[in-house]
User: Fold TldD/PmbA family protein from Novosphingobium decolorationis.
Amino acid sequence: MLSPQQAQDRAQDLVERARRAGADAADAIYAANASEGIQIRLGNLEDVERSESEHISLRVFAGKRSASIGSSDMSPAALDELAERAISMARLAPEDAYAGLAPEELLSQAPWPDLDMIDSGELSPQTLRTMAEEGEEAARAVAGVTNSDGASAHSGSGVFALTTSHGFAGSYASTNHSLSVSVVAGEGNAKQRDNAWRQSHHREDLPSAAEIGTLAGTRAVGRLNPGRVRSGPLPVVFDPRVGGTLIGHLLGAMSGSAITRRSSFLLDRIEERIFKAGIEIGDNPHLKRGLRSRPFDGEGLATRPTTLVEDGRVTGWLLDTASARQLGLAPTGHAARAGGGSPSVSVGNVHLSAGTLSPEELMADIKDGIYVTELIGQGVNGVTGDYSRGASGFRIIDGQIAGAVSELTVAGNLMAMYAQLTPANDLEWYRAINVPTIRVDGMTVAGE
Assistant:
């Protein structure tokens, strides 16, 4: 794997080859990853894996026509062939009035913020094995745990570089560490499974393996002997590990591509209050050690902290250059590149601001409700906002978490759900989308 500067130089070399081959404009991306992992099951080593990938992709423009192509072969001859093939493809492509590189005057320039995404210490295979073993042992030590799906520990690093023919060149590197544990509780047909996992750039930001394992075991045992619920309207409380999906649906509806296709339930609702007054949702791509932190976006524009929802109102759309041109707006620095192809839209580290009530206070007046810890399926319509997903979790009776429940569906419409959304004060900060416990009144629960 190349260093960040070497990766930047390699991408710049490919752009220059494309210009010599006849491209009016071009950009190139180099992305590489290396990782290794250990999987343990029932105390025994089950799998050892090591993976490395290296890819370079080129996007070229011939007037308003464009094409993208990529390769894992970095030899000079392969790069020349890549450039020539890309130009040939672009000349045969249909014209796109909105195609093109980002506006030159908006390009980001170094120095960029230090995001502290590199852990200088390497984890040996033996260290990874010890982490996995400790995690599984802690989970299996929880009373009621009867079997294990295994524990895995991974460590890796990556490099990303982007260059353009109109003056942008940048690169950055990151490391990552993760640990996951999955166990089974109960016997026979009454078995239940659950898990716990964490990921971070720095190992020191991970909880101990024992803590993660104990959480996995406790979760699995807590799901034993689930009951059923009667169908009807009920308040639903979302655990932070699933509540972030509600915000994820909002981000999808805010993307420029959804707006330009008129396939978003947020159409014509800009500046309209869709959440309760005081609700704020922020995006911070400069959060130190954040999982989605990045110094610049996939088109070379500056990233910056942004308020996406302010006082309950959506402040604007998430725009790459193409969708911005189509809407007659400025790009917002939310372009993303995942290998070849045109940019898509992605955010940084998103959070729903905490409320004032503790989770216990948030649920105190619920006579009968559902506390959701798992969501199943993809039953969300991004055009209408209709929402229906399988779920499991716990009953809430007289403001207290009661027995486990399963085989139920929670349904509603996202616009109505957002209007009734109330956050607790237990905001967590280790995910890509960080949310506190969330209460949504008036949802439809389908059970028995």
In short: Residues 4-20 form the longest helix (17 residues). The first strand starts at residue 25 and ends at 41. Residues 4-221 form a domain with the PmbA/TldD fold fold (CATH 3.30.2290.10). The radius of gyration is 24 Å.
